[in-house]
User: Fold this.
Amino acid sequence: MTAEATTPKTHWKKQHNYNFLGAYSIPTGQDLVLTIKQLDQEEIMNASGKKEKGFVCHFVEADAKPMILNKTNCKIIEKIYNTPFIEEWVGKKIQLFVTSVSAFGTTTDALRIRTQIP
Assistant:
């Protein structure tokens, strides 16, 4: 086995001060289980650099950055915990993974939530 195969590699995006979790935050092929602490509408920067309101999930785990929840991930949380009410999501665990998605005319990596309770 070569040193390259055993040495962890660092994604370039980890070298910048991104405020939110992204696909680069999870090592390839691994999942991340986190506990929801709070959910809020917050001011975020969109892909074109403009400020807008976004739905942000904060976690109990101290080392976890918050995550911007899109509609797809919200629908998954609603489904696995059988409630559309965000107040009932607090204290619940979610399991994040990275998958390829088609978005904005290209294929890119995205964070998704597994469709079962961890």
